[in-house]
Amino acid sequence: MESFHTRFSAWTPFSNKSLNTQLFQERVALISHWFDLWTNKQRQEFLLTIFLRCTKSQLRFVQDWFSERMQVAKVDFSTVLPRFISLYIFSFLSPKDLCAAAQVSWPWKFLTEQDCLWMPKCVKFGWFLPYTPTANEYGAWKRHYIACVSHLDWLTPREAAATYGTLNEPKTEDEELLERQREKCLRKRIWEEIALRNKELFKVRPPWVSGTCCSSVLKPRSQPRLSQTVRERVGLHEALEKQLVLTSLEILPKRSNISGSHSYPLLSKKYSHGVHKNDNSSSYALRPHFILISSRIPAYEMLVESVKAGVVSVVYEHSITLESLLYLIEKALDGRKAHSMGIFSDGDSREINLLQGYKIGVKNLLRPEVRDFWEKLGSYVATEEEGGHVDFFVPLGASEAGTEVLSQLSQLTGTFFTAPTGIATGSYQHILSDWLGSQWGKAPSSIYFCEAKLQTWSSFTDFLEETLKTVRKQLYPLFKELQKSISGRMIGQFMFDTMGMTNILNNQETAQALADGLMELSKDDSERSVVEDNSWDTKSRLSKNDLNVEALINLERILQKDSAEKRTRVVRELLQSERKYVQMLEIVRDVYFAPLKAALSSNRAILSAANIQILFSDILQILSLNRQFLDNLRDRLQEWGPAHCVGEIVTKFGSQLNTYTNFFNNYPVILKTIEKMKQNINMKDHLSDIQRIIWGCPTLSEVNRYLIRVQDVAQLHCCDEEISFSLRLYEHIHDLSLFLFNDALLVSSRGTSHTPFERTSKTTYQFITSVVLHRLLIENIPDSKYVKNAFILQGPKYKWICATEVEDEKFLWLSVLRNAIKSSMEK
Length: 827
What we know:
Distance between the termini: 85 Å
Strand content: 5-15%
Largest sheet: 8 strands, mixed
Strand order of the largest sheet: 9-13-12-11-10-16-15-14
Helix content: 55-70%
């Protein structure tokens, strides 16, 4: 006999390859069978044990297997795609987004700092490198872009025009040639200084700094700050660069713009200030005088006509807001600064009535919105050093409070504020008096207005004031009588609305005063004049008591007429509300009750008769009662008159209101019934699901039908029924599923199908028959050595011998089935 050599195991032959392979496959099949029988936790422990025993090559094999069959959820596209595709994707990002992407990872930093991405962005703005990068230089165009952006000074078109003059003026060929030479020379000098500054910064940078002039937003938070020596050297280079630009500007050939000042388009705003600092003539020429005139000023049209030529004037409505007033000022100045500003509005020696709700005084001057307004207003006027000032045409200089207002405004805005010192007399003569702190050799009023026209306007306003005083004095009695008349009408109407006839008769003094007032107010002006001219003697012969009696009689007739009209309106409103209520009840009857009743009569019941009776019986009784009440009201209103009433109809209706008591008492029962019907609706959905999964199943949706239990059993066939139960042999022929409802038993065959390569199975049901419970008989089969847990179900036509897998299932099923049969027979 051949001896088999083994290695590490007595059961694994080493020399016989075929037998070794067969034995290995059998053991793999055995372990797979055990693996299928284990729980999830046991499988995880087994896999963990196997992986701990694997070598690196074996673990790499598992990893490769998963990577080939499992889809990767997240991957860095820059490490998978070719480099030119990744660069093309990054080319769509803005410079800010590119800088943010550079902080993601080292591969992204390398890709996002390539010159092919940053060079088009620099060339787009005309920013060219002053040198040619070497072959190994990295990120030159990005550093150049950041350096150019960090030195930008943005100007709006209006600011650029004010600073550098009009750039669209026609030029000759010589001027254009000089312009190009000047630009080329200045650009060369600036580039040289920028390169020198970058070299100096590179020498003094610490080892942890990248050397690029990136903004503070892109610097990591953990980066240490530069030392004091480094910061001083950087500041020194910035000062040298600024001085260099100014020096280069001086040595270049000058170009004069239309405004007469020398400027250069490429200079930044902060450098241009130094150039224009000593050239005040051009800047002052662009600063006009500005005057604000309130619409509350009398005859402000004449005041506007007296404004001098070249002075910008704006008339504003007194009801606008502070923001709207600032907008009007900004729009009128059109980006310029005013050399001086005048404000012509109402006010006295203590405060300025600038706008509606804004009386500017010491108390409210420091309110946030008022303070912001004056700060912005001061920015539109030249400073005190430049000769700017704001002039109030209000006598604030005549009191200490007004002087305090002017002082605070000057401190707040940095602009000189002035006002006339004349006494406030109510007229506008104070504007022609002396002004507080006038330093210009003439009154501020002469700056804005022609003095002759201003004198005419002042005289005219005085005349208007005198005329208004005279008119008020003459019309005062008429206004007083009109006020009394209106008050009398209001008092009379109030007494008629709140007091009855009895109260008026008991209060004779009130009635007398009321009668006199009503008689006077009821007469028209024409009738009153006729009576005064022709019937004065007749009225004098009537006694005062007769007048009072006649007035009371008229008053009683009016009250009776009003009472009849009110009674008619009340009855009509009662009829209308009752009609709407009956219509709502009829909708309930026609939409809900009638269809449910018709379905019940046609053997397609939606609700049972008992439920319909519980829900709608009280509502139908209420409908009948209110229908009768509505008919009575309609008949009474058709023959309505002052002598008719509806009291007996309401009394008769009130005696039958116990129907509402029954409705309220049964209301909880109605709610419970509705909840029960909702549950039945859910049960109907369940029955529909059962009907759908059973092939050939008839309709299961019946009233009050619900599922009790489902039992899976095995159908048996007895080979010889003549012998005793203990000796009978049974054969398993089918699998059945028994669906027990509260009124029937549904029998169906059960089949199980398996899909290849899947562990789950699919169960199907085929309808066999259904048996009414009260016609079903149950017979128990005692256990023997040939059969266990068996029983017999006997119907009118068929008999089934069934068996369950467990004894407890048989006991529970038979007890539930007997109780269901008993309940159905009791119904």
